[in-house]
Every structure is written in C-alpha cells, then in structure tokens.
Request: fold
Amino acid sequence: MVVDFRRTRRDHSPLHIDGSTVEIVKSTKFLGVHLAEDLTWSLNTSTITKKAQQRLYFLRRLRKAHLPPPILTTFYRGTIESILSSCITAWFGNCTASDRKSLQRVVRTAEKIIDVSLPTITDIYTTRCIRKTTSIVDDHTHPSHTLFTLLPSGKSHEVPMVACLDAVGFIDRSLLDDILCFLRALRQGQGWRTSGE
Reply:
C-alpha cells in the first residue's frame, strides 16, 4: 500500500525485498483494522458494520426464544459491541458523520431487539479514550506519558496541546482527538484542564 498525498500522482517504482517484488494494494488489514491508501476509515467502518449486522441475526433468534434482556445484553456486548469497538480509539475519531451513523444504526437496532437502553457508539469511544488515557497517565514507562503533566497542586493534570505536534510540526490527529475526547468527558470538575484554559 502506498500513501501519497502529492498533488501530481506519480507511478512508484516497485519495491523489492529479497529479490521478490512487493505487491501494491489499495487497502490492507492490520491487526483487524482495514487501512486504505487514502487513510479514510470508510472501508473499516463498512466492514465492521456488515459483520455486526450479521450478528444481529443471532440476537433476533435469541429474542424469539424468549431469553430475558440481561442475557440478550450479555450476548450483544460479547458478540456485537466487541466488533463495533475493536480498536475504536484508533479510528473512530476520524470517521465521517455517515460512518458514525451507520455504526450507531446497528446499536439502535440492537436496542430495539433487546428492548433496553445501550451505550451509544460515541459513549463507548469516550469510555475507551478515558480508560486508555488513564492507563497512559498511570504508566510512567509509556512513550506518551510525558504528554500529561501534573499541575502545581499535584491533583490535576495539564495536557499541553503542542505535545500533539510531531517533529515536523504536523498534528497527530488521532492523538489530538483522543485527548480532546478525554478532556471533554472529564471537564466537569474532575481535575483535568488543557493548557489553554
């Protein structure tokens, strides 16, 4: 897969490893996440949505067998929500609105089948971001730990937004989205603030 954002497209010379040519593809699957050459998440979202919709069939069958809502909810969380939330902190922040709607449509369908309220896909993303950021703050050996510094009070953390810039000055969009999501969720008196406040 070749990622090239230059205005004038050029043919890329083939890459050879140990005498064999590496095939250039439009997309690839890495650790269960579909990566496209234009770095959009539509392929990944459509694949996840399709797989989750297939699992809704089994949820409907269990509902027809008159299983109680707690068991249906457990089945949903284990077979459908786990698919929807797989590596969600890596890709959900940069999804298009239509991709998010298609994912949420699966959640709403499951809600109607089970007849209980389920967390939205955005709530799942926010929860995972909070969990990931908290683990980064608690782990002093994590490479991103230095992005979070304690304020003089020692009780709250400051997240310097310039830390999201790489060496060339480009913003790491995924990291920035994760941090902003975390801050929005914890802003209500939880002891976190951005350096711009």
Q: What stands out?
A: The radius of gyration is 21 Å. The longest helix spans residues 42-64. The chain has six helices and seven strands.
